[in-house]
Amino acid sequence: EPATSFFKHARHLAASRAPPPPSSSTPATSPRREPATSFFKRAKPPVVDASFADYHPLSGLPTPGYQGNLSKKQQAALDALRAQMAALGLTEQVAAAACAPAEDTDGLLLRFLRARGFLVPKAAELLQHDLAWRAEHAVSELTSRPEEEVLGCDPALFERYLPGWYGSSDLQGRPAQWQKWGDLRVDELLKSTSHEQLVMHHVWQQEKQMRRLAENAHAHGVLLSQCVSVVDAAHWHPALATRKAMAFLREIAGMDQAHFPERMGMIITINAPYTLSACWVVISGWLDPATRAKVQIISSDKYWKPLLATIFAPDQIPLEYGGTAPVTFGL
């Protein structure tokens, strides 16, 4: 996979957006017209601590609640949660769970705090539960196990019923996964494996993405805490929403919120059929409001192709979605 092209594209894009240097022929007070954009309105950058400026220039971070942009109340909550973990003897476990160097210990604590509205008791409960779960299931060792062992069947079978590509990154350096959820056939998969193994395989995939998050952060010297998901819903129809399929979707949605809080930066659902709306009403009820707000559902490529072009460099978009990445799904 190309390692640096999308970051070169990102730096070029960031440089193109920088204000021009003042010239003697242009008064300093002359207004400069901002370029129009179809999808995003540029926000004024927050005034923050210069010591936490290691975010990608296209990310818009740090927004309130992130390192370098904490209110006094949020800083007090962070200090309180850190002290509580120390009092419980969990400091080392918290440090081990942090996705270094993409985040440090405070970055992890802030993710859990944001997930619970900076309510320290609720954030502490969520974090303690996550640490216990990680120890019980040896999650730190999970990615060292072969995929077939975790999944309980030939990975080619999983690729047949949920084709995907996991080697992409967006312009901010966030790892991205492209999956054809419209082709998901949970009932067929369960003929060769178990519900529990399917769920643990999802955890295996998430942990693989966390490794890529750390690698991207290390390679390019930026703080990263989130990933991007592009969901192709083509071919989906209501008959696929079986009891077993909905049970699987519900469990992995809960798993992500309990053990990967604040990890999802954006979910873009493309080629969405009209019939998906009824299923989305059910699925959205399993998600917290912050996660629901990150989901975009778009039917026509007239709209999603230009949107993808604002998020990814061309070589990070598969050919069939308008990019140049020579990716073949379903092998």
Beta-strand content: 5-15%
> What's the gyration radius in Å?
21 Å
User: How many strands?
Assistant: 5
Termini separation (Å)? Answer: 17 Å
The outline comes out as globular
Please describe the biggest sheet, giving its number of strands, its sense, and whether it closes into a barrel.
5 strands, mixed
Characterize this entry briefly.
Helices cover 44% and strands 8% of the residues.
Give the topology, please.
Blueprint: H1 5-17, H2 72-87, H3 91-97, H4 105-115, H5 120-136, H6 147-151, H7 155-161, E1 164-169, E2 175-179, H8 186-189, H9 195-220, E3 227-232, H10 243-259, E4 264-270, H11 276-284, H12 289-292, E5 295-297, H13 301-311
Helix pairs in contact: 2-4, 2-5, 4-5, 9-10
